[in-house]
Write a structure and sequence with these properties.
Blueprint lengths: L1 H11 L2 E5 L3 E6 L3 E7 L2 E4 L5 E4 L1 H4 L9 E4 L2 E2 L2 E2 L2 H16 L8 E6 L5 H13 L4 E6 H8 L10 E6 L4 E7 L2 E8 L3 H16 L1 E2 L2 H11 L10 E8 L5 E7 H24 L3 H10 L1 E4 L8 H9 L3 E3 L6 H11 L1 H7 L4
Parallel strand pairs: 1-9, 9-10, 11-17, 17-18
Antiparallel strand pairs: 1-2, 2-3, 4-5, 4-6, 7-8, 11-12, 12-13, 14-15, 15-16
Helix pairs in contact: 3-4, 5-11, 6-7, 6-8, 8-10, 11-12
Length: 343
Amino acid sequence: MGLISKLYDYFSSDLAIDLGTANTLVYVKGKNIVSREPSIVAVDRQTGKIQAVGIEAKEMLGKTPAHIEAIRPMKDGVIADFEITEKMLEYFIRKVRGSSQFIKPRIVIGIPSEITQVERRAVRDAAQRAKANEVILIEQAMAAAIGADLPITEPGGNMIVDIGGGTTDVAVISLSGIVISKSIRTASNEMDEAIIQYIKKKYNLLIGERTAEQIKIDLGSAYPLDENLEMEIKGRDLTHGIPKTITINDNEVREALEHVVHTIVEAVRSTLEKTPPELSADIVDRGIILSGGGALLRNLDKRLKEETMLPVFIAEDPLSSVVLGAGKILENLDLLKKVGRNY
């Protein structure tokens, strides 16, 4: 039995996956993160064939001919297109496992904390059909907390705010369990959409989602900056139908993002209001940890600190917190028994 177990470990290449709305990250047991690509698939609608996945597919966004469509199969943290998600997962699994194809891997996948049983089952079924042997689902907030090295097994309150592409997960964790949590479908993708709509309304200019994402990265903030920033952007003038270039600044982008930022702040405040007093005392000492791509929005930590009067810190590697936490669970069976939930 020992030899069989060793052979399984050698050939299986068990995986941890952060199946995100914006990006999919893959961690291979014993090798750390080996893949980080956009959750986008380009499909030929005439033949049904996959044309590209990940980075290559993202390059096609807004540029494809009529018969090719660049699809985001994940929406608001859950599967919107089951068949395309399955093919995307199969692509990533095949890409990272190479020759280790004949033994199906165990896969740990992060999921939003408040998705339905039907949505949970869809994630598990997609992974199993993409050649997984066993699928273990773990709440993204728990995975992010583990990935951020919070002492989640101790009897003390740890607050994590994981702002992904499609969902923001807020949770207070103690003794390896989530005591209180809130998941909202407002996150980084909503920020991009808010920028698109703001520029459309104010300048009558239509921009694509890749441009909106770049504006968010270059100018986005949740609290006034120390120095003013501006950039030129190109889009289509909706009045004359021709290309046009304008200049926008950080104040405008902050105004565009205000509703999204306010919604996230309110989710944090709501969770704090429901937190048991003893754990609240711990959070006063330990502070709030931000993870996920949304944590990189400039001065979001300052905004939350002002709104909650609590210390706020950004995880060391916020973009990778969920997959690193899922990877630690994969590497540590004792931790898996404490926090893993197998559906």
